[in-house]
Write a structure and sequence with these properties.
2 strands, mainly alpha, single chain
């Protein structure tokens, strides 16, 4: 597996798409700090923009991973690896490990340039302990993205199809996270306008879609289970359930990897 991983990393280093995605990550981090300073001065702390990469990483990986690893089917690289004596387990795990390392580099580039531009312009972080904890959680979220995409890529023989499926998966999880977050963020009361004696009168009425105390834990779990739902919380630096977030990331990673590997073990590669 070490040789397979080394080969993957060597190919990644020479891949133009990888460097393009890395440049985008760095540019987003630096520009976010500069734009915030130009619009708000030093009134907005660095903490508020530190986790912009959490909303970006799922999209970048959905573009890079299927185009990079998906080519192994069309080029016959997977069959060659198996013919050389490597097991399907080692092939799968080496690709997954390379994907996780790639995600860490994308996140790290954005963080580095956010700090490089943000500290001189906005000042240092106000809550370094919270930032460190949230950063660790966000890297676990990125690993969960990698596991999801790797399961799709390794079990789809066509590069174009795996690219479309990864993008659709990203959009599906994005829409699901947005819907669940909107449900959780809905107010208990909202204004209602009524015409009384020829005048419009506003009054607060109960919101019928407001989640009760018994319903909220289930929707919170759905939000935490979704990598994009985690990103929504991280970008606001508001991980109120860090243990549950970590367990959800580990669970998604483990279950998706086990399912993807089980399918890959039975896949006909002829």
């Amino acid at each position: 597996m070490t040789n397979l991983l080394s080969a993957n990393l060597f190919r990644i280093k020479k891949n133009h798409l990888f460097w393009g995605c890395l440049l985008i990550s760095a540019a987003v981090g630096g520009w976010q700090a500069i734009q915030t300073f130009l619009e708000h001065g030093r009134t907005v702390p660095l903490d508020a923009i530190f986790f912009v990469y959490t909303m970006l990483i799922g999209l970048l990986l959905s573009v890079f991973l299927p185009l990079f690893f998906g080519s192994e089917y069309s080029d016959g690289a997977i069959r060659n690896k198996l013919a050389a004596g490597h097991t399907r387990l080692s092939v799968y795990l080496s690709n997954l490990t390379a994907a996780v390392l790639t995600a860490a580099l994308f996140c790290g580039a954005c963080i580095l340039f956010t700090l490089a531009a943000g500290v001189p312009l906005l000042g240092g972080p106000k809550y370094p302990g919270l930032l460190l904890k949230t950063t660790l959680l966000s890297f676990m979220m990125a690993a969960a993205w990698c596991a999801l995409y790797t399961a799709v890529i390794m079990n789809c023989s066509r590069k174009s199809a795996s690219a479309v499926m990864c993008m659709l998966l990203y959009l599906l999880l994005f829409m699901a996270a947005t819907w669940v977050f909107a449900k959780l963020d809905a107010p208990e009361f909202w204004p209602s306008l009524e015409l009384i004696d020829g005048e419009m009168v506003s009054e607060m009425v109960p919101n019928p879609t407001y989640l009760t105390a018994d319903q909220r834990p289930f929707y919170e779990f759905l939000l935490d289970l979704n990598p994009m739902g985690q990103a929504i919380q991280y970008i606001d630096v508001s991980p109120v359930r860090p243990l549950q977030l970590a367990l959800c990331s580990v669970g998604v990673f483990a279950v998706t990897t086990a399912a993807g590997l089980a399918l890959f073990q039975r896949k006909d590669l002829k």
